[in-house]
Write a structure and sequence with these properties.
The complex is a heterodimer of chains A (293) and B (472).
Chain A: H1 12-21, H2 28-40, E1 44-47, H3 54-65, E2 68-73, H4 80-83, E3 85-87, H5 89-101, H6 107-114, E4 120-122, H7 124-130, E5 135-140, H8 147-159, E6 161-164, E7 168-171, E8 177-182, H9 190-195, E9 197-200, H10 206-216, H11 222-237, H12 246-259, H13 266-272, H14 280-289
Parallel strand pairs in A: 1-8, 1-9, 2-5, 5-8
Antiparallel strand pairs in A: 3-4, 6-7
Chain B: H1 13-27, H2 34-46, H3 52-63, H4 70-80, H5 90-93, H6 108-125, H7 128-142, H8 156-163, H9 169-177, H10 184-217, H11 219-226, H12 241-268, H13 276-283, E1 304-310, H14 316-332, E2 336-341, E3 345-347, H15 358-368, H16 380-390, E4 399-404, H17 416-425, E5 428-433, H18 447-451, E6 455-458, H19 462-471
Parallel strand pairs in B: 1-2, 1-4, 4-5, 5-6
Antiparallel strand pairs in B: 2-3
Helix pairs in contact in B: 1-4, 2-3, 4-11, 6-7, 7-10, 9-10, 10-11, 12-14, 12-19, 16-17
Classes of the chains: A alpha/beta (293), B alpha/beta (472).
Chain lengths: 293, 472
């Protein structure tokens, strides 16, 4: 089994530094797990509530390692034809009809012809395996896909090869770095979890979120960022249907900046609450608990 | 475990130590397979062993499979890979920290005062590292119990009593708010911050006490008691308020999962009859060969669900979760009707409109719904009678009936025949009982008698609720 050619990162500190440069501030847990995934050549399974930066991590990883990001978005009803490969039957049909019009090439030539590279539609998994350049394969929202897809992933992720009956087995020349994300709406199978390194992402600590806000919205006053982050944490402490995500915190920071507000008091909050809370019931609840009126 | 108590690494070296740790993790209820144990050993070769946090996160990456397991894991990790007893940076603390000489009891009062002042300063700063260091000192200086022949023991309650951090809240709020006005948003936010920091301090003290106790008495004894059961194993009926919030978080995705499952099956029912016209039209693109067939969508089957829920005090914790489930189902299906009862029954569907907060709904049920007719003690017989009398039409051949309650009748009429009548009219019927199976039928419980006419399922914790949901 081919090991990953050479590790991308030299140490955990290196991971932190390069991810930070790519615009993603990792904490010790994230940096360590990414480092291990790189060293051991294992897929990384990132699980956590929506808006904790799972997909963002994969994108930053691609930027940091200078790889191309190939994304497989999972959904209910995703099948091999969408995830792996498919024959372009329309083109095949045309080819057959064309050969008939020509006066009929013999069947063997046509047969060899229509199951060639030209008629193969490569989907994300196959594309990632065939690439010779560094690649990050992001399998997003794995929990949305059906259980059968997990079986398919198991096969692809353990051997990094795909068998196409007409073409033979295609083995990865260069192993892609694989990141799977999940919102935990459904328990993924034990077998899949065992093959991956597990990273549970939660909302960041106050200090880290403050750094994230300041690095993404550098014009924001540090004092206001502090206030903003503490308010967001208070909101997450309430039992809301949808807690504010990191990106919503950033949106909020941007909003405050655009509006030229220099402090987050009750009127400011009441007028901009829609940026972070997007359910009517959440808004009423937050207004009641935080006594905004 | 054969490692001598107190030593960090037992015989068998690092590998043996890791093995013992893995076994402890398994005993805490986290399933760790052999391949994961092997991976854990591989982790040791890659991470920087001198960096404790790297080791912690590295092992977590291969040993854990769910976020809920993390707390138990962290406790065990601290026991198996304790921080050394290095004389942690006394100099940095600066504030005239008393040395060893003040260990004598007479100075206890003054010492506690000093440390309280220091704690206040640290909580205001909110530097987690300094707070942890302070917790270590505090346990050392204030947490000692009476020396016993079995060794020195430490207690977190002694530290907490001496420092009583909860009484610092007012001062902390004043400090954090500064000259900003009290009340309103700023205060709420500050309160949340104070709560977080106090909780962090309490956690640090408890971890330190565990570490010291483990060093004295062997970590196996500590490990058994220190690890709280995983959230989904907590009994609904015995859940403490701290667990409740976490439990609610565990149940929420469960409800969504159930809804997804039900609608997935609806969709998986595949396409219906062939749509001839569409197929022929599409075949024009492929030279008249119908390569892809198109079908008409199936008629949507709308499941009807009637939930009959005991909301009396004895099962309050349980009914809360089941009502959450009801609420989630309401958001996805129109055919859900909810009824609540104590000693009379009332329809509560109207409280669960989509988008309504569950906690509010439950408060309103207690206030507005006619669930109490006499004395507020469960009366299943009367409740079933009222239901069968007033809402007999709610149950039809397409309906699934779900009864939630402990089946404790207070020695009143259980009303088994009425329930049997309801069950026979419904398509399927289940009863979720939050009591352990062995207690069914004891005392005033009529669970075993109900069990003869309805499928009764034990549902004591979130894990069992999840199991039930997946078989539905």
């Amino acid at each position: 089994m081919p090991r990953q050619q050479s590790p991308n990162f030299s140490s955990v500190a290196d991971v932190s530094k390069r991810l930070s440069t790519a615009g993603y501030l990792p904490d010790a847990q994230i940096a360590t797990t990414v480092f291990l995934a790189d060293r051991l050549g294992k897929p990384l399974l990132v699980e956590g509530p929506a808006g904790t930066g799972k997909t963002e991590l994969a994108k930053a990883l691609a930027t940091a390692t200078g790889s191309e990001l190939i994304r497989l978005q999972c959904y209910e009803g995703l099948d091999e034809a969408r995830a792996l490969y498919e024959w372009n039957y329309k083109k095949q049909l045309l080819r057959i009809q064309a050969s008939q019009a020509d006066g009929g090439a013999d069947w063997d030539t046509v047969h060899d012809d229509i199951f060639g590279e030209e008629f193969l539609l490569s989907r994300p998994l196959l594309t990632a395996i065939r690439r010779a350049e560094p690649t990050v394969l992001l399998i997003d929202e794995t929990d949305k896909a059906d259980v059968e897809v997990e079986g398919l992933l198991l096969e692809v992720l353990s051997d990094f090869q795909v068998t196409i009956p007409e073409l033979g087995t295609i083995t990865a020349t260069r192993r892609p770095t694989v990141v799977l994300t999940s919102n935990a709406t459904r328990e993924l199978s034990e077998a899949l979890k065992r093959r991956c390194l597990y990273l549970a992402l939660d909302y960041p600590s106050a200090e880290r979120e403050r750094e994230i806000v300041l690095s993404r919205v550098p014009d924001l006053a540090p004092g206001l960022a502090d206030q903003l982050v503490r308010t967001v944490r208070a909101l997450r402490g309430l039992e809301l249907k949808k807690s504010p995500s990191i990106s919503e915190t950033l949106d909020w920071a941007q909003t405050l900046l655009e509006l030229g507000l220099d402090t987050l008091d009750e009127p400011a909050m009441a007028s901009t609450l829609g940026v972070v809370l997007k359910h009517a019931s959440d808004q009423t609840r937050a207004a009641a608990e935080l006594r905004l009126n | 475990m054969t490692a001598p108590s107190g030593s960090t690494v037992g015989h068998g070296g690092l590998a043996g130590h890791l093995d013992a740790f893995v076994r402890a993790v398994r005993e805490a209820g986290i399933p760790v397979g052999i391949s994961q144990a092997v991976d854990a050993a591989e982790i040791l070769t890659v991470v920087d062993l001198l960096d404790r946090e790297q080791l912690r996160h590295g092992l977590a990456a291969v040993l854990l499979q769910r976020a809920a397991q993390r707390d138990a894991y962290d406790v065990l990790f601290d026991l198996w890979w304790p921080l050394g007893d290095r004389p942690a940076a006394e100099g940095e603390d600066g504030a005239g920290e008393p040395g060893e000489s003040t260990l004598d009891v007479p100075d206890g009062e003054a010492l506690a005062e000093d440390m309280r002042a220091e704690l206040l300063r640290l909580l205001e700063d909110g530097d987690p590292e300094a707070l942890r260091r302070f917790a270590r000192d505090a346990v050392d200086l204030l947490g000692r119990g009476q020396p016993a022949p079995s060794g020195q023991s430490y207690f977190s309650y002694r530290v907490m009593r001496a420092l009583s951090p909860d009484t610092l809240v007012a001062q902390l709020l004043a400090g954090l708010l500064g000259d900003a006005g009290r009340g309103g948003l700023a205060e709420q936010v500050a309160r949340q911050t104070v709560r977080d920091r106090l909780a962090a301090f309490r956690g640090a003290v408890e971890a330190e006490v565990r570490r010291r106790t483990a060093a004295e008495k062997g970590r196996d004894r500590v490990a058994k008691n220190a690890v709280r059961p995983l959230v989904d194993q907590v009994d609904f009926l015995r859940a403490q308020s701290a667990d409740l919030a976490e439990l609610r978080r565990a149940v929420a995705p469960l409800a969504r999962r159930l809804a997804v499952r039900l609608s997935a099956r609806r969709r998986l029912g595949r396409e219906g009859r062939l749509d001839f016209r569409k197929t022929v039209r599409a075949s024009l693109g492929t030279g008249g060969v119908p390569v892809v067939t198109h079908h008409r969508p199936r008629k949507v089957h709308k499941p009807e669900l009637v939930v009959l829920c005991d909301v009396s005090g004895s099962v309050a914790g349980f009914s809360h979760f089941t009502l959450m489930l009801t609420q989630a189902l309401r958001e996805h299906f129109t055919g859900v009707r909810a009824f609540a009862f104590v000693d009379s029954t009332d329809e509560v569907t109207r409280f669960f409109r989509p988008g309504v907060d569950v906690a509010d709904a439950i408060v309103r049920i207690g206030r507005e719904a006619q669930v109490v007719a006499f004395d507020g003690h469960s009366d299943y017989g009367n409740a079933f009678d009222v239901f069968a009398d007033r809402w007999a039409s709610a149950i039809g051949p397409k309906t699934s009936l779900l009864v939630l309650g402990d089946g404790r009748t207070n020695y009143r009429q259980p009303g088994v025949p009425v329930l049997a009548g309801l069950v026979s009219k419904a398509r399927s019927a289940h009863w979720l009982n939050p009591e352990p199976h062995r207690l069914w039928g004891s005392g005033d419980s009529a669970a075993d008698r109900y069990g003869e006419v309805i499928d009764m399922v034990e549902c004591r914790n979130a894990a069992q609720l999840a199991d039930f949901v997946t078989t539905l």
